[in-house]
Amino acid sequence: MSGTANGGNRYPTMRSYIFFAMMFALPVLAHASDRCNPQEAIAELSTQKGYSVRGPLSVKALEKENMIVIRETGQALPFGYENKAWLELKAAMQPGDQIYFLSHRDGRFYVDYQVLVRDGCIIRWLRRKIT
Question: How far is CA 25 from CA 18, 29, 110, 113, in A?
Fold first, then answer.
């Protein structure tokens, strides 16, 4: 492939690379303090260019919307092949926690997640799609 949509640069933009690295570094444990880092704060991410946040979303609605049939067994499970990760995210929920849909687009790069938010901070995530 000789060229790309970003002016012939075959490598992702630095912003995309930083975002990709940041999303894989999202914390999976609750915070001891009441403030979180900007990349962990759902309110901060929602104001950044290229980010989209939807929610809070109910567990029941998410499971209904993301019911996927497993080819090998024919069994329908919430989040399909990612059902185990979904069950772990649900098990981590405490009263007052919320689930949001978080996505980011930067040029051709796109990623989205279901994120578990406690006191405004992302504490767990389930990656859905990277393109």
Answer: 11, 12, 17, 13
Please choose, from the candidates 98, 1, 10, the residue with its C-alpha nearest in 3D space to the C-alpha of residue 56.
98
CA 84 to chain centre: 16
Amino acid found at 122: I
Cα(88)–Cα(18) distance, integer angstroms: 27
Per-residue pLDDT of the chain (131 residues; tens, 9 = 90+): 344 444 444 444 444 444 444 444 443 333 334 567 766 788 888 888 899 999 999 999 999 999 999 999 999 999 999 999 999 999 999 999 999 999 999 888 999 999 999 999 999 999 887 88
Give the closest residue to 17 by CA, choosing from 104, 100, 114, 123.
104
